[in-house]
Structure formats: C-alpha cells, structure tokens
Amino acid sequence: MAKLALHQWFQKRKLEKEAGPASERLDIPGNLWIKCTKCQVAIFAKDLDANLKVCPKCGYHFKLSARERIEATIDPETFTEISPFLHSKDFLGFVDSAPYSQRILKSEEKTGLADAIVIGEGELHGIEVGIGVMDFSFMGGSMGSVVGEKVTRIAEICLDKKIPLIIFSSSGGARMQEGIMSLMQMAKTSAALSRLRSAAIPYLSIMTDPTTGGTTASFAMLGDLNIAEPGALIGFAGPRVIEQTIRQKLPPGFQRAEFLEKHGMVDIVSERGKMKEELKKVLHFFENAAKT
Amino acid sequence: MAKLALHQWFQKRKLEKEAGPASERLDIPGNLWIKCTKCQVAIFAKDLDANLKVCPKCGYHFKLSARERIEATIDPETFTEISPFLHSKDFLGFVDSAPYSQRILKSEEKTGLADAIVIGEGELHGIEVGIGVMDFSFMGGSMGSVVGEKVTRIAEICLDKKIPLIIFSSSGGARMQEGIMSLMQMAKTSAALSRLRSAAIPYLSIMTDPTTGGTTASFAMLGDLNIAEPGALIGFAGPRVIEQTIRQKLPPGFQRAEFLEKHGMVDIVSERGKMKEELKKVLHFFENAAKT
Amino acid sequence: MPQKPNRVLLEFEKPLLELYKKIDDLKMQDMDMSEEIKMLEKRIETLQRDIFSNLTPIQIVQVARHIKRPTTLDLINLIFNDFVEMRGDRNFSDDPAMVGGLAMLPGCKKSNPLGETIFDQPVVLIGQQKGSNTKENIKRNFGMAHPEGYRKALRLMHLAERFNAPIISFIDTPGAFCGIGAEERGQAEAIAKNLRSMAGLSVPFISIVIGEGGSGGALGIGMGNRVLMLEFSIYSVISPEGCASILFRDAKKAPHAAEVSKITAIDLLEMNVIDEIIKEPVGGAHNNYKETALNIGSAIKKHLSDLARLSSRELIADRYRKYRNMGYFTEE
Amino acid sequence: MPQKPNRVLLEFEKPLLELYKKIDDLKMQDMDMSEEIKMLEKRIETLQRDIFSNLTPIQIVQVARHIKRPTTLDLINLIFNDFVEMRGDRNFSDDPAMVGGLAMLPGCKKSNPLGETIFDQPVVLIGQQKGSNTKENIKRNFGMAHPEGYRKALRLMHLAERFNAPIISFIDTPGAFCGIGAEERGQAEAIAKNLRSMAGLSVPFISIVIGEGGSGGALGIGMGNRVLMLEFSIYSVISPEGCASILFRDAKKAPHAAEVSKITAIDLLEMNVIDEIIKEPVGGAHNNYKETALNIGSAIKKHLSDLARLSSRELIADRYRKYRNMGYFTEE
Ligand SMILES: [Zn+2]
Ligand SMILES: [Zn+2]
Predict the structure, then answer these.
(1) Can you tell me which residues the record assigns to a coiled coil (chains C, D) (predicted)?
(2) How far is residue C163's CA from residue A291's CA, in Å, rounded to a whole number?
(3) What is the ipTM of this complex?
(4) Which domains does chain A possess?
(5) How confident is the model at residue D5 (pLDDT cuts 50, 70, 90)?
(6) Chains B and A touch (3+ CB pairs under 8 A)
(7) N or C: which terminus of chain C carries fewer CB neighbours within 10 A?
(8) CB contact under 8 A, D89 and B278
(9) What letters, b where the CB count within 10 A reaches 16 and e where it falls short, cover D288-305?
(10) pLDDT tens digits, residue range C91-137?
(11) Which chains contact C through at least 3 pairs of Cβ atoms less than 8 Å apart?
C-alpha cells in the first residue's frame, strides 16, 4: 500500500465503498461511536464524518488525514497527485528506539502515504490551484527531506503555471532523524516561497492542529494570508518545552489559533465547514487581481 | 535682521567677535555664569560654550541654536545656506493671544531666523552633505509650510546631487496656526524622503531635545540611522497629553532617548561631543558603499 | 404595538423633535393616518434640508462624530462584495481600531473598442473602525489605533501593491492613540513609515474621510492620489477642543477654534487639500446608510477609472506632485 | 607579584593542568626561568595539538560553548574597522542577544588591468551575542534572541541591500528563545520571514558559525551564499541534550546524540551543508582571539572576492541552488 498514489487510493476507496464498509473505519475505536476529545460526548461516526470531523456539540476539530482534507477542499475528480513516490532516506543510519528506516516503513503502512505530505494539483470551486496537505499521522507530520522537497516542487509548479498555492500544515516540527538536513528544509521551502512572492503568485497557508517548530518557522507562517482552524495549537516551541524553560504553567488558550489571531499572526480563524467558501473568496480576489 | 542669510550672519558674528563681546550672550541670564538645568551647578558661560553646551558636571545637553549646531557639525567655511528667505504666510488670518503674523515677526527678531529650520550644503570631515537644522527657539520648532518646504528642498537637492542628507530635529510638532497645512507637511516631507530612499541616498536623522508630534511622526523617525542626543525627549504625543489621556503619572525616563533606544526606535544615543565623529564613520561607510 | 424609533438628535436638530413626536402620535392611533404621516415626513425633510445647509463648523463636527454615523465596516459591507477581513500586523497584535481586507467593487466600467465592459474590481480596503455604541467603542478604542493598527494597514498596502490592486482607505478617527504602550511601540515610527510608504505605492490609492479626520492618525492611512470627504466630515491637525485649550486656553472656545482652523470639507476643498466632496443624504449620513454608500461607491468608481489610466510610475509622480505642492509661504 | 591567569580548562584538557601549574610555579621564582618556561609552553602546545586533533563530537560541543570562546563582538572588533552598532527593530525593542551594524573590512583586494587595488569594503554585520561571564550572559540572554532580534537583523539586511553592501552574519546561539513573550510576538513568524527574505537578498551574504549553531535560531540569520564554520563549532537541528532526552529518553545520552546527529564542521562539510571549515588556533579559538579573527577575516575576503563576480540576479540564483539541493530522498 505504501506505493499507492493518491488517485489510485481514491479509486480503491471508491471501489471499497461500493463493495461494503470501508476498511479504514476499523482503526477508529468502537467503530460506530466516537467520544469527543473535548466535550466527551459520544458521536455517531457517520455523523462525525458528514460534519467534516467537527464535533456537532462543541465544535472540536478532529484531525483530518491528508486524503480527507483533499476530499473536503478540492472539487471532486479534479485532484492529480504529484510526486507520490518520493521516499525518505535514512542517510544518517539513525537509530533511536527503532531504526529510522523501520519507522518510515511502519508509517507508510499505517497511513498509506509515502511521507508526511501529499501534494498535487486540482480545482477549488473551479479555480486551478496547487495544494500541499500534511498528515500528522505520518511521524507526527515531521518535516524531513521529502516534505521539504515536495513543498518546493509544488511551489515551483505553481510558479511555472502561475496558479495559487495552498498548504495545509499539521506538523510537530523538524524530523530529528534526518539531523541538520531537516533544518535545511526550512531554508529550502522558504526560498521556494520567496520566488512565488517575487512573481506575485498567491500563497495561502492554513494551519491546523498542531503546527509547531520548523514548519511554523518556515512555510506555514509565510502565507499572503495565514488562516487557521479553531483551537489549533500553533507555535514555535511546543508548550512543554516552554514550560520547562520558564518553569511556570502556561495561560489557558496559549498558542491556540485564536491567541495567534489576537497577536496579529493569523488573518482568519475559520471553522472547517466554512473553510472552502473562505478560500474561494480569497482565490477569487487574487484571480481577478491578476486579470486587471 | 530677519532677512539675514546665515553666511551673512556668520560674517556679522565674526566682525562682532573681533569688535568685542557678542551681543547674543546677553540673552543668557547673568551672562557669565549659567546654572545647569539638571544638576543646578553654576557653569562659566565660556566653558559651557567650549563644551558644546553640555554641562561638564552632569552631562546635561542644553539646547543649541541652529547656527550653533551647524558650527558644531559642519567643517568651517564650507556651509552655504539654501533658501534663507522663505517666510511663513498667515493664510488663515489666525489669531490666538496674538495674530500669527505678529508671532512670526517676533520670532524672526528674537532668533535672526526666517523660520524654525535652516538648510544648506556643507562638508562634514570633508564629505559633502545636505543638512537641515531645526531651531526650537523659533515658535517651539513647530512645523508649518516653511519647515516642510525647506526639508523637501534640501531632500530634493540631495537627491539631485547624490549626497547624504542629515537633519537635526528639535520640534514641538505641527504649527497649529497653519491648520491642516501644517499636517500636510508630514506627508510632503515623507514623500521627499521616499524618493531619497528609492535612490539609495543615505539619510541620517538626529533627534535632539525635544522632538515630538508631527515632526517625530514624519521625517525625524525615518532615518536610515536614527540617532539621538542623551536625555532628549522624543515622542508622538507630549507627556502632558498622555498623562491627561491615561490619567496616571508617567514612569521616569519615559520618552527619553535611552527609552527609545531600548524600545528599538533609535540606533545610537550619542553625546554631543562625539556626534561629529559618529556621523563621520557612518558617512564614510555610505560613501564607500556607493563606490563599490 | 410599533416601537418608538431610537433617535439621537443633535442640539441643532431640536426643531425636528416636535414633528417626530407628531408622527409617533399618529402612528399610535387606530385610524389610517398614512397621508398625514407622509406630509409630516415631507416637512421634516424640508426642515432637515434647511438645517443642514446652514451648519456651523462646530455643528458639522457634531455630525461627523454622530454615534449613529455609518462606520467603516458599515460602509464596506454596503459598497463592496465578498469582503474578507484580514487581521494582524505580523508583529505584535491585531488592532480592532483599524480594519482591513480584500473585497470586490461591483459595477466598475472599462471602455474598450467594442463599448463598455462592466466588471468587479478587486480592491484592498483599510480604515479606522469606531463603534456604534459604548461597548463597541471600548472594543474599538473609539477608532484610535495603536502602532500595530498602522502596521496592519501597511501590511495590507504592500499586499495590494504586490497583487496590483487599488487601495481604498476610510478615515474615521479622533487621532492615533496616545498612551504608554503606543509610545513604547513607536506610534510616531509607525505613522512616519506609513507616510513614506504611501508616497511610493505603485497602485491607485483613494482616501475618504467619512467622519473624523484626526491629525496624524488620519493622515497615517490617508495619502491617497485622491482624497475625498463626506460632506459633513472634518479633517484637522488638532481637534477643536484641543486647539481651544492649547491656543485659546479655554476648552469652551472649541466652536471658535473649529471656525478659524478651517476643518470642514468646503474649506479643505478650497485649499486643495481634498479633491472632492461626497454629498450626504438629507439629515446626514446617519439618516440613510444606503444612500451614503451609493454616493461613496460612485465617487470611488469615478476616481478609480481616472487613475486606471496612469502607470505605476505616473501614480507615484501624481502623488508626489499633490503633496509636494501643499503649503503657503513667500520667498523674497 | 604576577597574578595567576584565570584559566577555564575543560575535562579533556586536564592533562594540561600540571604543565600550567609548573609554569605558574616557575614564574613565581626570583630567578630568570624564561628558557624553562618556553620549553614547557612548547610541550603544552604539542599536547594541545594532540588533544584537539582527536576530539569527540561531545567534546567539540564543549569547545563550541566555551565561556571564553570569542563572541561575535569580540571578533567584529578584531576583524573590522569603524564598527557602528545599530540598535532596534523599529517595532518593539532592541534585543541585546542580537547585534549588528555597519563596518569596514580592511585589506580587500580587487584585480584590475593595472594590477591589484587594496581597499576597505563596507559590510553590514549581524550576529548573536553571548556573554563572557554570567552577568553578561544574563544581559545577552545567553545569545538566545527574541523575535525582535530577528527583526533587527532583517532591518539590517534590507539596509545592506539598499546600499549594496555585503552581509556577514555570525552565528552563535543555543537557539531562538522559547518563552511566552517570544511566542506572543511571533518567534516563528520572525524566523520564517527572515528565511524568505534571505533567499531573495541581492547582495553577497556570508554566514559563519563561530560557536553554537542552534537550530532555527541559527538558521534565522544563516542563509548565506557561503556558510563557513569554525573548526570546533557545531550546527544542529536540536541540541545533543534535547535530542537525547526526546529521542533516547535520557539526557545523559547527549554524547551519543552528538555522535549520531552529525553536528560537527567535518560532518557538515561532507553533507555540503557548509562550504568551508575555518581553522582554529592550537587549543581552540579561545586560546588566541587574534589568530581566530585573522583566519576568519581571510576566509571572508576570499569568499567576498568570489561572490563579487556575481550580479544580484546571480547571487539570488546561487543561493536558491544551494538550498534547493539540500535533502536526501529516493524516488521510485
Ligand atoms: Zn465535542
Ligand atoms: Zn549639570
């Protein structure tokens, strides 16, 4: 399954849906009922899915996989994945509790993804866009060489085709198993965005729960508009690191999307259900600005 | 005396010096001894002058007139005044405790200046510069049409000749007797500086005690380097206005040069005695940068 | 039972009170009084027209500050489509006293060989935001922005420039805020940098004073290629009260200060500080938001279409000329 | 009576202690012992050379963090003339953990038809600043900058660009500071914006790791066309201690983490993350500031003269290529 491109996966999923209950459902505990992380209410899995995985009771935003996000964002049948077969290389021979190469294999099996991001082209309300979507379930959405390369590739494609770039971030930061190379991805991706900026190609960054570390301190913070999902944890350092550094408890709401909005780092905090509409308005603006 | 250009004034002063004690000395109370505003020590007037009007005891910087400042900054015999005969016009027919036209005449008589700024060209350690020096004793250094026009003219000359611009500010803000026109001088001078910036002509702003209001919120804050004299009051609103607004006492040191340095608004706080040397280093840098 | 409208009448509008009361009384009756009401309403309109054509400067100040006067967001929502509000200065905070974002201006016209095309023009909007009641005003700091407000505005201007969208700014502020934090974070620096940056903007820029144009705080977003003013708005280097207490040492002399400082739209048009006066509905902008918005929208479209003919270089030169020429002096 | 020098010896330098003591004793005697002292000093040098040619990664970490290691300002004052320190981010504050300003680099060479000209090159300098003792370190926040430090650096980079001066950055930080204020004021935003801006700089840009190159905080001023490293400095995505406690769940495994993470100059040169290693004096940079400065100065001049041949466009392209190529992956 690791070597399955996303369009193949969509195809497979479609077939499975027709055949019977999707096997992916099985990894949700209890299958049919899900307990909300925030308000503890039990939600019927199908209702949660229908509501884009937002708790109908308290509005808590569950994490979406890259595939779910693409489905929720890109017009049906318009998505083409790019570079689905890029894989990380364990060039340091890094072993912590397990060898890095094994970790990668495990994550591939678990997620059906080749690394922590999916990139591709598609349409959003009929507007052609390049899109990158990170997936937190692949090694905590950590950024290594593959994430850096794919962000760069999709940025270069957008530059080439003069179409807007949208990136949904969800990341714990740099992938330490790739040492300094993971740090260099911050430089690499930011350089790619520098080119987009010079060419006046719009770039929209959407930060979802959580977006921290090297991802935040590079491409996630550099949107022409920075957008966030409600309650998403967004920061440079993780809250635990800060608590250890300053030896005090952090105030409630610290580093949440609304906190960043208040502190001037985020333009819009948008509920998942309204996100596509919001993006459409913004893209429509840029599309027309480019014409006049 | 109002219509005396600065080079004529220097000439006159030279003659007077040769003839006997300068008549300007008479406006300092007690003539020979001056009490320090800050430490209250009595200083022999000649010593104070020799020390560029800085108290030898506590370092308090007395105000300098525009002419004294030019003498302290520009190489001897190199200064040429520009537009010495620009005069304010009482276009609103403004009368407060006295008609504006009379206020102007009085200030002209008192200071020997045509308005609150002197502009000209000269050399600083052999480097050609355009310079503007405000004089607080002319209606509190307030900015009306003449100050705005002269700042703009000297900026345009620097643009034309590709020489650096230096402005010493000392101002209570906009000249209210010129109504909205005094406000528009902020736009006018900033626009002139915008041209300098685009052409990469260096502009050094030196803020002296006090620099507030519309002057601070336009050309004074826009230096490639912002420099200040120690203890100078620098702000947007005057301290009394702020105290009235927030109904509390201001902390000590508030809005002083060192406070602005700490808050990131000023590059260098330089004692008057070291100012020329500091400017020389900076000008030397820019001169060489332009060559390479 | 119909509710009595929540009217806020200014001192000089008191002659209207009796007529309004009569209408209210008629509305309470069981019989159909619509004819009589219509007549009364006509009389009100005539009286209003009369009153508002003879306002003194200090009365105009009162209209400009009217609590029910349409705010920046009120007008944005009436004039434009698809407004996307953008928040924050990317430095320190989001300032609720300064708003801005992306929007589409419908009904713009472009001439071409085949005739006229009507299109939606993308524009970047900025403006000071007052509240329509005390609670809102506290949240909006009475429209007095901090440095971060000016820095948010600057961020939006640069975005507009990058994407080649015209900028419309709405000016409505008693002034930039005076306080410890504002000084610490460089109120003067923020405004100064905006002035310099506005001078160099490569896109068409229109500024509109819709209420109070308070000093450097107003100018900090106001260096348009065209500066327009609503009929009963003001624009001044200092408030009449401030001027009175500083220059006349008596705050009660504000009416006199308003008079001599020349702060009304007509005065400013005469001095070439503004380019056009936008008519207000009978009884002032607060009496009819829609008509106000319509008038502003038309003015924006007219000036945008004029400015569209200029190249980036020409736009900058046009702006330079405009501000370069401001000032009265003699040279002998 | 001569004072005993205030030496700070690292654990692995302990073999030197006895020799130092002997010298100290000899110096205390009344007789002339200069010959004997010279001999001992030679033995020390030999031993130092020996020790420093076989340092383990964690020992290099210790040298890189040595309290007496020359700081950014130490080196600036030794390498350049007429340094003018510039303060402040024009937003919020001046960050003492990040310094910068204007300076002249003497002794630069330019070839021309008539031979070689020697000239002073104006340069813009930025760098993290550590203290040389606890008091200074507290003032400098141990070289950990807040967002305002990165914004000051950015201001200086833009100034350099405007006046066409090359930029030299000195990297010496455990990392960008982690704290409430740093998060509130956008540490991530500040670093991200610097990265994007550095990528687009139109002037030659050289970054030099002189001590600790701590993660994003180091990279935030480190995207030079050339990246150089002092021999015993380190550059890593996370400190060995951090890596050990997160990945190996045991902070004591820092030596192992230092080993496997490849953070020394030699490792990084092999991976093409840096372009050159600058030799340190025998016993490390802290043993001889002047020689260290001389070596760095020569390296800067060499690379500046190389980069001087590139146009602005080529400089940007050169930088893009450099960072574009970073990463290891397969594609099948
Ligand atoms: Zn819930
Ligand atoms: Zn004194």
Answers:
(1) 23-50
(2) 10
(3) 0.94
(4) 24-62 (no CATH), 64-291 (3.90.226.10)
(5) low
(6) no
(7) N
(8) no
(9) bbeebbebbbebbbebbe
(10) 999 999 999 999 999 999 988 888 889 999 999 999 999 999 999 99
(11) A, B, D
